[in-house]
Write a structure and sequence with these properties.
The protein is mainly alpha-helical and 241 residues long. It has one domain. The protein contains 10 helices and 2 strands; from the N terminus they run H-E-H-H-H-H-H-H-H-E-H-H. The chain has a two-stranded antiparallel sheet. The longest helix has 29 residues. It is globular, with a radius of gyration of 21 Å. It starts with a helix and ends in a 7-residue tail after the last helix.
């Protein structure tokens, strides 16, 4: 083997080196939440063929939000709020963006961290307003739809920001949230993220089960698609949202 071949092999190995960033529970949460929100939006219209799943999708999103709040304290390194909720760094980050000097971030960048919190709060608000409608509360359908529209705007901004940051930082952020890994070359000196402690997954599983139980106490038909629509029709056309 020639020196040139050895050098090429080493260069190839370095270029393909990866670091672990996002743990599996966080990635599952992310894509399940994407799916539940998408289902909730496409099933929102009364004449939608998926309308029976609207309420169920909302309750699934509620349980996922509960999981994420817990995982933000006991999850892997970059899943923890302490790792990315740093408002004091936002001005410098925005300044760097305006100067076109974007440095790749191992976890969430400062602005992305605040966006994550905003999205979690918005989803929680949509679920609250929808649950209030089911329970006969006075929040009103207009409020529910208004908050949902605000969430849609935030999601649009989030997607646009992910695309923009992927281009500016030359790093595929969507792929990273699928594989959980990023290029080591783009983050020299970075180490694999510290994994969640051993008790984290069992505790999170119990929290999810407790969340599902709590949802059923509030709405016994939460996970029965179409139950609310049928109840509304039987009662004279009540709203199913």
């Amino acid at each position: 083997m020639t020196v040139s071949t050895v050098s090429d092999s080493r260069s190839s190995a370095i270029a393909s080196a990866r670091i672990k960033v996002w743990d599996l529970p966080l990635r599952l949460f992310h894509w399940l939440l994407v799916g539940s929100i998408l289902l909730a939006f496409v099933s929102a219209e009364e004449d939608s063929s998926l309308g029976a799943w609207h309420v169920t999708a909302g309750w699934v999103a509620a349980i996922l939000i509960g999981f994420r709040l817990l995982w933000g304290f006991i999850g892997g390194e970059h899943a923890r709020f302490a790792d990315f909720v740093k408002p004091g760094r936002v001005p410098d980050h925005i300044g760097a963006l305006l100067r076109g000097r974007v440095e790749p971030s191992v976890g969430h960048n400062p602005l992305g961290g605040l966006a994550t919190l905003a999205l979690l709060l918005a989803v929680a608000a949509v679920v609250w307003s929808g649950a209030d409608l089911i329970g006969g509360g006075d929040s009103g359908e207009a409020l529910h739809e208004g908050i949902a529209t605000g969430l849609l705007v935030l999601i649009g901004l989030h997607v646009a920001a992910v695309i923009a940051m992927s281009l500016l930082s030359k790093e595929n952020l969507v792929s990273a949230m699928i594989s959980g890994e990023k290029s080591a070359v783009r983050h020299p000196g970075a180490q694999d993220a510290v994994a969640a402690p051993g008790f984290a997954v069992p505790l999170a599983t119990l929290a999810i089960a407790a969340g599902a139980y709590g949802v059923l106490q509030v709405d016994g038909q939460a996970f029965t698609p179409g139950a609310h629509s049928e109840a509304g029709e039987a009662g004279g056309g009540g709203d199913a949202d």
